[in-house]
Design brief:
Order of helices and strands: HHEEHEHHHEHHHHHHHHEEEEHHEE
Oligomer: single chain
Helix content: 40-55%
Strand content: 5-15%
Number of helices: 16
Protein name: Cytochrome P450
CATH class: Mainly Alpha
Organism: Streptomyces lacrimifluminis
CATH topology: Cytochrome p450
Mean pLDDT: 92
Largest sheet: 5 strands, mixed
Pfam family, one: p450
Strand order of the largest sheet: 1-2-8-5-3
Radius of gyration: 22 Å
CATH superfamily: Cytochrome P450
Family: Belongs to the cytochrome P450 family.
Number of strands: 10
GO molecular function: heme binding; iron ion binding; monooxygenase activity; oxidoreductase activity, acting on paired donors, with incorporation or reduction of molecular oxygen
Length: 420
């Protein structure tokens, strides 16, 4: 990582909202050294950047905060991936990469997986509730760490089902996703980097096995769609085996899709439950009036956005919010800041599930809007249905203060200890 103080970057990542407020109030754009980027914090400016994809390129959207050491890069060199993915592509190439994902996460496919998601949500809650039942079956006081017992499990199982993964492989794939994020966005000692890189490569090899298997024997799943997209030649014929380049490309797409499909939804579940329970009046209202759950989902996504933002790079000299930027300037386009902009959201710092709906930017906007937004919403809806109906007395555990994960990509509690 560069010379920026780690503690200042951690402070920003754990609570970026004071930085956002200052940037919204300032004239023009604000350059934030901790991000090494111009911070785009107002709703109107964020929307302008996202509309002008030709002027603000997505290349480097996920530029790492930490560059792995040569020894870790050598380990990564023995794996797969490293090819362009949808989040960092522009123009026609972006549309090509996005097409199989949009198909795989279509409303029909999401509807098909909802019964499975509902079954798994109920089973995961059963697992931590049933251990706290008396002999009569009535609930005694209990406790759970929700992130590990539920939030990190449901999204992986659901996206794994859509992709076509064997349930036995899903824990390793989820673990690999977190390790990839850790390697690129956290300062680690070299020996830690090597260990993390080994986990990432192990995950890539699992995904390569799936890619080769789906090429040989296609199925009705998203893995097959992605493999087909990287092997399409236009003549309808497929080679008996994937080339090495095609394997790298397929693994890149699968790895990116799976990370986006479970880390973001996990984060959203964690922050939603956290803020509802920190506002007991809102939680009690939701328990009494479950028809408000869809509105609660939208308010939670707006109030503390899981994916705080992406980087963009100017392709030519441009002026944004009165600030002149040269070609090659890096911006951090902060969805989380735009969602607290009082010009669009009155009382933006109030968590209020009764507020009149106004379209937010929690799932992006424009060409790069999240194709999995409906899938995430459905999982959050199911989660709130389960928890409000079965555990209305849920509350934060006073002996476990909440600390947020130091990341701008998947903002969530490190852990969430709850009691009832």
């Amino acid at each position: 990582m560069d010379s920026r103080p780690h503690d200042r970057l951690d402070e920003l990542q754990r609570d970026p909202y004071p930085y956002y407020a200052r940037a919204r109030d300032a004239e023009g754009l604000t350059f934030v050294a901790e991000l090494d980027a111009w911070l785009v914090a107002r709703d109107a400016d964020v929307r302008e950047v996202l509309r002008r994809a030709d002027d603000f390129s997505s290349a480097g959207a996920l530029r790492p905060d930490a560059i792995p050491a040569p020894a870790a890069l050598a380990v990564l060199g023995g794996g797969f991936g490293g090819r362009p993915v949808v989040v960092g592509a522009d123009g026609d190439r972006h549309q090509e990469l996005r097409a199989p994902i949009v198909k795989g996460l279509s409303p029909a496919r999401v509807a098909d997986v909802v019964p499975y998601a509902a079954e798994r949500a109920a089973a995961l809650v059963d697992a931590f509730v049933n251990g706290d039942q008396g002999s009569t079956g009535e609930h005694k006081g209990g406790r759970v760490e929700l992130m590990s017992a539920y939030a990190r499990r449901l999204p992986g199982e659901v996206i794994g089902r859509i992709v076509g993964l064997d349930p036995a492989d899903i824990p390793a794939v989820v673990h690999g996703g977190y390790r990839a994020e850790e390697l690129l966005f956290r300062p680690l000692a070299e020996d830690e980097q090597i260990a993390v890189a080994q986990d990432v490569v192990a995950t890539q090899r699992i995904l390569d096995r799936y890619a080769r298997a789906r090429h040989a024997e296609p199925r009705e799943d998203l893995c097959t769609d992605i493999v087909a997209s990287v092997t399409a030649t236009g003549d309808g014929d497929a080679a008996p085996e994937l080339t090495l380049g095609q394997r790298h490309e397929a693994v890149s797409h699968l790895q990116n899709l799976l990370i986006a499909g479970h880390l973001t939804t996990t984060a959203l579940i964690g922050t939603t439950v956290l803020h509802l329970l920190r506002h007991p009046d809102q939680w009690e209202l939701l328990c009494a009036e479950p028809e408000r759950i869809p509105a609660a989902v939208e308010e939670a996504a707006r109030y503390d956005t899981a994916l705080q933002g992406f980087r963009r790079v100017t392709t030519r000299p441009v002026t944004l919010a009165g600030t002149e930027l040269p070609a090659g300037a890096t911006l951090f386009v902060a969805f989380g800041a735009a969602n607290r902009d009082g010009v669009r959201h009155p009382g933006p710092d109030d968590f209020d599930i009764t507020r009149s709906p106004v379209r937010h930017l929690a799932f992006g906007f424009g060409a790069h809007a999240c194709p999995g937004s409906q899938l995430a919403r459905e999982q959050l809806r199911l989660t709130l249905q389960e928890l409000t109906s079965r555990l209305p007395g849920l509350r934060p555990a006073e002996d476990h203060p909440v600390t947020m994960r130091p990341t701008m990509i998947h903002r969530s509690p490190l852990s969430l200890h709850l009691t009832w």
